[in-house]
Amino acid sequence: MPPRTTSATSKKTASKKAPAKKAAKKAAPAAQAAPAKKAAKKKAAKAAPAKKAAKAAPAKKAAKAAPAKKAAKKTAAKKTAAKKTAAKKAAKAAPAKKAAKRAPAKKAAPSRSEEEEEIGPGLKPGDPAPPFSLAADDGKTYALRDFAGRRVVLYFYPRDNTPGCTTQACDFRDRQTRFASTGVTVLGVSGDSLASHAKFRAKFGLNFPLLSDPGNQVAAAYGAYGEKQMYGRKVQGVIRSTFVIGPDGRLEAVHSPVKVAGHADALLAALPA
Questions:
Q1: How many Cβ atoms sit within 10 Å of the Cβ of residue 154?
Q2: Rounded to an integer, what distance in angstroms lies between the CA atom of residue 158 and that of residue 162?
Q3: Which of 21, 22, 147, 204 is deepest in the core (most CB within 10 A)?
């Protein structure tokens, strides 16, 4: 038979259970609150970096903006310096421009295809022709006295085989028949040697004598040697000149300085028929 429980025993049991229930009730909210607190802490932990990032963002922006500001300042400084430099250059250039306007225009540089002669002889038409006696490339010697009663075209040129001199010689060559038909003898004179004359004559088929004037003494006597302009500077040399000597030994025409183009035709047109 089971033992009977008395009321006293049940009361003791109930009294023991009552504090346990109270403790359980107190423990229950605490247990429930613990996870909530942990969750709150976790949220706070997660939020902390975001707050730090938010705080750091303006600093980063400021750090990024700093170089841009510096670059902008440098650019502005460069522009200012460039403007100052341009202003200085303009100030310096202004007097130069004024001087350029005041200065007379420069003459165009002479062509190098021909020699330039600016100072002619002192001889003039009607003067007695200075006497000469010079060896020629054909082996003969030609003297002024040999042409008494005849007309002579005596032309002085600077050098064999130069562009202007070659053109002039070929112009006389091509018109030799017309000169001869009027009784005119054409004689070319330069300071070149007889050997140089012979080569020049053979190369271009020249059909009139070329006289050698060593030291340019005859040229000087005719005023066809002296100071002249060549390629923009003054030099001593042969001045391209042509003299028409009449039958009486006097000068009929003086051409100095000579421009090659059309010169031979002009001489023919001026000769008596």
A1: 25
A2: 8
A3: 147
> Helix, strand, coil: what percent of the chain each, to 5?
55, 15, 30
Local confidence band at 67 (pLDDT 50, 70, 90 cut-offs):
low
- Summarised one tens digit per residue, pLDDT across range 77-116 is 666 666 666 666 666 655 555 544 554 444 444 443 444 4
| Three-state secondary structure call for residue 98 | helix
The sign of the dihedral angle between the CA atoms of 138, 141, 142, 146 is negative
Start-to-end C-alpha separation, the chain? 189
CA 241, 243, 248 angle in degrees (round to 5)?
Answer: 165
Question: Hey, which bits of the chain come out as E strands?
Answer: 133-135, 141-143, 151-156, 184-190, 210-212, 225-230, 233-238, 241-245, 251-255
Query: Which is catalytic among the residues 165, 238, 254, 267?
Result: 165
Note the pLDDT of residue 227: 77
CA angle 223, 264, 189 (to 5 degrees): 40
DSSP code at position 149? T
165 in active site:
yes
What residues contact 188, with CB distance under 8 A and at least 6 apart? Answer: 155, 157, 169, 172, 206, 208, 209, 210, 211
171-180 contacts at long range (C-beta below 8 A, 24 or more positions apart): 171/260, 171/263, 171/264, 171/265, 172/206, 172/208, 172/264, 173/204, 173/205, 173/206, 173/207, 173/208, 174/264, 175/264, 175/265, 175/268, 176/207, 176/208, 178/268, 179/153, 179/268
The mean per-residue pLDDT over the stretch 36-48 comes to 54
Could you count the other beta carbons within 10 Å of the beta carbon of residue 132?
19
What per-residue confidence (pLDDT) applies to 52? 54
